[in-house]
Specification:
By secondary structure, this protein is α/β, with parallel strands linked by helices. Helix content is 38%, strand content 23%.
Length: 276
């Protein structure tokens, strides 16, 4: 990251804090409220139903937490949403009109759904700034890539994301030298450069220190509203910190849903998950 870009970070931070991140992503019809509809989704592997008539709705701008025991269907659910797995039955819609079952994984990502896996994947031999630049939505054809220099608007966008993911002072650092938690933030930042409307975060605080976990909670809460965010996590302290609505999956279906205190007190949830 150049010295000029670093000065832009310093001068732009206060404006970002006042204005907030702009609403991201391509046009998705959310006139009825929800941005994601899963209806009657069933996925079977060799006779085992990983998802069993799963129905779930995520509102536009919502922060939703998904919990449940191992094997509950959380990963398969995300695989269906991102096109990695095709359901045997049921429908999955992004907004009112985008049928996810008709799109490839790349088309779904382009439509505005981003997914962060458990293990962060970054370009370790490139700087933090370069990672965000490489992830930016842009013309990736060879000539455009060779000739490309970030515009002022693109530099401003990178600055916005650096501030948001707590890495404004780390732009010049090689990504490989970051802590585990910082790499997680960088990968979230790389997703944000794609301007998604819906973010799927799979165990974002696994392996983090307490301080990193706290800052990740702040990050997740700051994203809600500007993006729809689905967090799958086992760390109940983290979930309690960020939760607005919690959905509990068990044996491929929704077992319970509601505010954290209501879900925690549900005898069925205590029996199959929280009591373990």
């Amino acid at each position: 990251m150049s010295a000029a870009a670093m000065r832009t970070v310093d001068s732009g931070s206060s404006g970002i804090a006042q204005a907030g991140m702009r609403l991201a992503g391509p046009n998705v019809d959310t006139t009825h409220g929800p941005i994601l509809y899963l209806d009657g989704i069933t996925v079977a592997f060799d006779g085992f139903k990983a998802l069993n008539d799963l129905s779930l709705t995520i509102d536009d701008g919502e922060l939703r937490c998904i919990i449940g025991p191992n094997g509950a269907g959380k990963t398969t659910m995300m695989d269906v949403i991102t096109g990695k797995t095709r359901p045997d039955a049921g429908t999955a819609f992004f907004g009112q009109t985008i049928d996810l079952s008709q799109l490839t994984e790349a088309e779904i990502a382009h439509a505005g759904i981003g997914r962060k896996f458990q293990k962060p994947t970054v370009f370790e031999r490139h700087s933090v700034f370069e990672n965000l630049e490489l992830a930016m939505k842009a013309d990736k054809r060879v000539r455009a890539t060779i000739d490309a220099r970030p515009s002022r608007a693109e530099l401003d966008r990178i600055v916005e994301v650096l501030v948001l993911i707590h890495l404004a002072a780390e732009g010049d650092r090689l990504a490989g030298s970051l802590s585990h938690g910082q790499k997680q933030w960088l990968e979230i930042g790389m997703l944000l450069m794609q301007e998604p409307r819906l973010l799927l975060l799979d165990e974002p605080v696994a392996g983090m220190t307490d301080e990193e976990t706290m800052r990740t909670a702040e990050l997740c809460m700051s994203l809600a509203g500007q993006h729809s965010v689905v967090v799958v996590e086992h760390d109940m302290d983290f979930i309690a910190r960020i939760a607005r609505t919690v959905t509990v999956l068990h044996e491929g279906s929704v077992l319970a849903e509601g505010p954290m205190d209501v879900v925690q007190a549900d005898p069925r949830v205590i029996e199959v998950y929280l009591g373990r």
